[in-house]
Design brief:
6-stranded antiparallel barrel; 4-stranded antiparallel beta sheet; alpha+beta; about 475 residues
Amino acid sequence: MMPAFGSGKPRSGAKGLGILLAVSIVIAAVVLAKSYIESHLALPGPRPAKAAIIAVTPDLPRKKVVQFRGKVFAKYTRDAVISHPGKIIDVVVTEGQTVHQGEILASYTLDRISMEKIHEIVNGEQVLQLRNRLYQLKISIEKLKNVDLPLDRLRVEKAQTELNLLRELQSRGLAPANAVTLKEREMAGLRKSSQATNDAIKQSEAAFRGVSQDLRFAESNQKRALKLLQWEVGRSYSDPKIPLNRGFLRAPIAGHVIWMNPQLRAGADVRHLGASRGPRKVPDLAQVGETAGMRQGQTGGNGGGPRRAFLAMTIAPMKQIVIRGLVHELDLVKLKAGDTGTVVFDAFPEKELSCRIHRIPWVSVSNVIEVPASYYVECVVEKSGLILKEGLTCSVRIPLHGYAPSREARATHRTLARGVSRVPSSVIRVFSDRSISSPAPPLAAAEWGQATAGSGSIPAPGTTRVMSPLIERNEPSPRECAR
């Protein structure tokens, strides 16, 4: 008989199913907990170093050449800029063209704001005012000296003659008693007037000297400003045949036009002076596609503050080139300025040119402690006979002549060869799965053969590479240690 619904007594089959489900959950929890504990025990942690060390010396005299990749750069560059807003009339050169110093590259017309400044400099309003003031002072001084002062002297002489006559008449009793007194007072007034004229002459001469000095200073400023303006607009304002609103862009040096602003074209308005490339930077050679100095952005300034100018072109003598390459610190210590080598360009694989190390910097590219140091080494190509473009890639080989490791390095190498497990931590660099984003590439068979020559040991798979300038050893992976 079937039990009635809602009686409150569960069936025996349902009860057994619930017990089985509970047991299954407990077993699954135990299995998951065990796997969780095992996975955490497999994580790398502090452990004793392996006693067996394979002494490998890849940087001992066995390596006779330092190789690195590089890019071509001009030895130096100069920018051709348009300093005043205006409108481009014509561009007479193209990228890659050879130009001479002072050659016209483009022509343009200046806007009204620039013309106000040009008129102020060319005409020299302050200079004209000072010249007018100087002319007036000169006339005044001549009038005082040639007219006023002689008249005062004549009046004084005439008054003196009359005074002498009155004194003689008074002595004879023919002149009133106060006539001499009145004439003496008149004589004193005339002498004061003559003295005032002399003082006015002295003051006018002092003012003339001051204005003359101011005029010389203003003329000097105008000459400097005019010279700077003529250099900026690439023309001379003494030639009346050229309109005042015309400007020219000229080559600052002789060389090749290696870059032109995309906005530089006939009819373009260069009023917005900030649209130009940024400062020249050393490129990151690891980033494919980047060239030397991204030529877009905003220009900086020189002197006391930022100077806004439209960067039109960049000129460089490409017959004088340098190669900059990224060199690891282990190879950098073997190089010195003056070392010679060879360079092969990817675009000209059949030609091998000679080069010489010109600069070795003392500051690395990155200052991150966990990252090995790399440096930009600069090489000079001598007598290439080629006109190379900036950014061409190449391979540089520098033979090591007479390089040998230090006494300390040789002593450490002998110690490792005897199988001693204690190695100074300062000469070890560990590359584990958690210290770098990608695992270290496995060594080639030839490298393993060199590494294990004479030791009779072969590295097991799944090992962690521990590298240094002197040694390279193998340690078991964290999972093998956990096992």
